[in-house]
Amino acid sequence: MSQLEQTVSRYRSLRLSAAADELTNLLAEAEANEMSYLSFADRLAEHELIQRQDKRIRRNRKMAAFPAEKRLEGFDYRHQTTITKRQVNALLDFQFIDERNNLVFIGPPGVGKTHLAIGIGYKAVEAGYRVLFRNALDLVEELELAEMKGELKKRVSALAKYDLLVIDELGYLPM
Asked: Pick from 27, 84, 114, 158: most CB atoms within 10 A?
């Protein structure tokens, strides 16, 4: 086993898989740019951290269960008269999450409430928040089922672990 293979194996044992995967390329880059040992070590650690962050974002985005990929960058504000891009961007400091405040979009069908909610949810995931998207009717059914099984407290506790719970179609619940 070569020294490179042994080093890659050790990185994998330490669960530094991104560094292991990129070691050969980073060694070539370090040699070509005559990097110091410390710069090389920093570059390797930076690569591992970036890959872990990307993986965490992908995992949390999947766990959020968004019904579609809706980005704020794709939202058309030209036909929107009740909220501006500036107002939406002001929400992206996520102070409302940190302060445990609710954010409610109210309006007729088709004006972009769901798009905005998902878009803000995506940004929250990218900022490191745990997010869950649920349709209101599905959430009610989920809670009713948990109650029938005697697991309501457990289910509510699980929901409370999320930083942001996006509940869509709240106005369409049957009374």
From this structure: 114
- Spatial neighbors of 125 by CB under 8 A, at least 6 apart, are 57, 60, 61, 64, 131
Per-domain boundaries in the chain: 3-64, 72-172
CATH architecture label of 72-172: 3-Layer(aba) Sandwich (3.40)
Of 163, 164, 143, residue with least CA distance to 154 = 143
| 133 CB burial (10 A radius; 0-12, 13-18, 19+) | buried
pLDDT at site 140: 93
Mean local confidence (pLDDT), 86-96: 95
Give one word for 94, left, alpha or beta, with left for phi > 0 and alpha for psi -120 to 50. left
Collect all residues with Cβ–Cβ distance below 8 Å to 105 and sequence separation of at least 6. 83, 113, 116, 117
Q: What is the pTM of this model?
A: 0.79
